[in-house]
Amino acid sequence: MKIFKEIEEVEGTLIEWRRDLHSHPELAFEEHHTAKFVAKKLREFNIDVEENIAGTGVVGTLRKGSGNLAVGLRADLDALPIHEGNNFSHKSKNPGKMHACGHDGHTTMLLGAAQYLSNHGKFSGTIHFIFQPAEENEGGGKAMIEDGLFKRFPVDSIFGMHNIPGIPVGCFAIKPGPMMAAFDVFELTVHGKGGHAAMPHLATDPIQIGTKIVEAFQNIVAKEINPQEPAVLSVTKFQAGDTFNVIPSNAKIGGSARCFSEKIQLQLERRMGDLSKEIAKAFEARCDFHYERRYPPTINNEKESLQARKAAVDLVGEENLISDHRPSMGSEDFAFMLKERPGAYIWIGNGDGEGSCMIHNPLYDFNDKILTLGASWWVRVAEQYLNPAQTY
Ligand SMILES: [Zn+2]
Ligand SMILES: [Zn+2]
Question: Which residue among 112, 217, 262, 347 is least packed, with the fewest CB closer than 10 Å?
Answer without folding.
Answer: 262
